[in-house]
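Replying to the earlier thread about multi-chain prediction with a worked example.

Input:
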Amino acid sequence: MGTTLHDVCRKTGFSTATVSRVINNSPLVTKRTRTRVLKAIKALGYHPSRAARTLSRKRSDMLAVIFPEIASGFYTEVLRGIDEIAAEHNFHLTTAFAHGQRDEHTLALQSLNEQWVAGLLILNLFEVSLPAEAVKLAAEQRVPVVSIDRPVRGPHVISISMDNIAGAAAMMNHLLAHGYRDIGIIRGPRGNYDADQRWLGCQQAAARAGVMLTEERIQQGTFVEGSGRLAMERWLDTGRPLPKAIFACNDAMAIGALEVLGERGVKVPEDVTVVGFDDVDSARHLALTTVRVPMRAMGRAAAEAAIKRILGGETQQQHVLATQLVVRRSCGCDPKKSKTVAGGDRMKG
Amino acid sequence: MGTTLHDVCRKTGFSTATVSRVINNSPLVTKRTRTRVLKAIKALGYHPSRAARTLSRKRSDMLAVIFPEIASGFYTEVLRGIDEIAAEHNFHLTTAFAHGQRDEHTLALQSLNEQWVAGLLILNLFEVSLPAEAVKLAAEQRVPVVSIDRPVRGPHVISISMDNIAGAAAMMNHLLAHGYRDIGIIRGPRGNYDADQRWLGCQQAAARAGVMLTEERIQQGTFVEGSGRLAMERWLDTGRPLPKAIFACNDAMAIGALEVLGERGVKVPEDVTVVGFDDVDSARHLALTTVRVPMRAMGRAAAEAAIKRILGGETQQQHVLATQLVVRRSCGCDPKKSKTVAGGDRMKG
DNA sequence: ATGAAAGCGCTAACAT
DNA sequence: ATGTTAGCGCTTTCAT
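Result:
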């Protein structure tokens, strides 16, 4: 181990400058020199030290990926997308997951402070915007910051999000088009961006159709399975008739709801229609009608934007990716004929 | 940005050595000095540069995680476990996924060659053992290599695996105990470690019970959903009666099989019992009886072993974690009474 | 086209 | 207890 530039110099008789030039493909070396140096490098099994390079160049090829969690299809798919693009451009990834224990801001600030990342990809910021401190720091260091999933105001942050409103509206329109008027909603947590946007989409579609989303048709959930169970139990326990269709604003809650219905012998879709949002893996197995979220594409877009900026290019500030309605058995329609697209690839510069 | 040690020196009047000592919590500084230096550090917003540190110390706090894939519950959970332990010990993670495009060996060698990782965690090596080259390199650099999922021979590699044999045997015994003798197996790909071990477990249990696993009861699968579908279709298309119970050696194949059965109107568990192995997320929703694999625990064990070695401690070479039988509706038994443990935490030193 | 030399920001002997 | 100094392995002016 530990063969260094100097070893190559010693072996070839060239200076560090020349050898360095060869490594970095500088055009200022003769073909002959290059060949000889490369031969020596190969013979010695030399590889430049990343730490030394980073220190000397004052830039790295590391992208920091900071997620609240990893053990979920959503995060995994986004990471997958990021990794694809990073690999393509020879960037490396360093990942950190908050797990509700550490917080994302600290993680972000650390990688910035220690100056070892070229870009920052952050998913689902807890606050509405990154702390000014981090954004400022990143801007000073010319480290692009990409906020995935949630658009962030502020001039120095790129954001990649999806068209939640169009997705939710498309789902509502699908239900409305199939004659449902008595629609119950299990919405996500207030203050959560996706939840609020989806709720907006529901309201807009309902309003346009002249359908009332009355108080007793709305249940508050938290985007986790248990909250879907709870919501459904509350409905069933009122004694009032269930809505004809139930739109859980994410699949996890829809799955929780389905479980309760199954336990109580309520048949889906015969007795009630249940639909979700996200299109997680299980949704397919449960034949759940849902809205597909372009997770991998979001990851790819995020990495692409970051790398473009790092390499000195320009990118739009906000990318909004389309969602897609996926019709399966749980809404009682014919899946064949109605797989339609909701929302378009919009870009706001 | 870019405040350095020197800035702190200038501000406090102390030398780089003293300031460095403060940063590194050396006991050779007076309380008073420490306080003053810390104050200056805070005032300046100073943070040591990771690249400089790594270069100077000749060691890093990076763990490289090299997986064949990420978009699957299995890898995700392992990564989750690794991350938990890494965070606990203030280690950082750098991840690389092969995606069938890049190969794991190259990825592993690169991080070793560039000398920027303190440990290597590799999942599911394609070859039976790491290439000697990489192992040698790692050993020279005192970089521990941990092979997750597959035990690796060779003195310099730690391996973390699960008790596939006991798990498969436990499943077989469960079926046998419930009176099944006509058991079909969809096995995994030959040459795949997990597949071969599970198959061994099946055979052992069958042999002990004096049950024949005849040729026509065995289907070859590849551990992916489609291969489970295919296997089931082949069975159904022979016209012969289906086995009474079908043990798909992973959940993906079991899910594929369930799909086909559903499509053809064969009821589970009324007409046929289907069980799997892994306990992926969907298994719960499908009420699939299966064998739980300690994914997160494997990740934790891997990171723990690596870090222990890095910090100069000793660890066993081979860790084998227990699997657990999870009984659900798909085998027609009462889930309540038979959630049992299969295999024990064994350690071979 | 090549080389000499000065850093990059930190750590760690060694000296005091 | 603190300071001096020589690297760590590379890149990058500035000469030649």
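DSSP finds 13 helices and 14 strands in chain B.

Feel free to reuse this layout for your own posts.
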